[in-house]
Request: fold
Amino acid sequence: MSLEGKRVAVLAEDLYQELELWYPVLRLREAGAEVVIVGTGSSDTYTGKHGYPVNVDTSASDVRPEDFDALVIPGGYAPDRLRRYPAVNALAREVFHQGKIVAAICHGAWVLVSADVLRGRTATCFSGIKDDVINAGAHYVDREVVRDGNLITSREPDDLPAFLKEIVAGLERQK
Reply:
């Protein structure tokens, strides 16, 4: 498998879930993709739930959706902060509307709620926010990974292998 030439944005903010950020970053880089870590612009470094730092490459207000083939939204409590930034919601919405992969795990679905891209879609998420996903117009299912068109969602860190397998497969299918 080779993702040479593919560019993937991974969102970051304080209190991100370490595995849900680093597993996709390392797995996608291993497959040959260029991974760009995108923050809100509030800092150059964010700290995960367990204290592990991540340095961001740029901020959401400084990127263009057309420059990416996919967007990955890790969970933890970072998505509650991420979705407060209009540039983050616009990035997620535009990548989605351009038909590119938008993938969210765990609480990452909160960004999808705020970006208003769940209406009429089937999705999963951490069980604690399933009501938010349903109220945003999605059909919620409890499965390790759900793909509905260009939308890929998962529930928790244990789902990461299936989540990344689906993201990689989707990127390989893109022209």
Q: What stands out?
A: The mean pLDDT is 97. Helices lie at 18-30, 78-82, 86-97, 109-115, 130-135, 160-173. Residues 160-173 form the longest helix (14 residues).
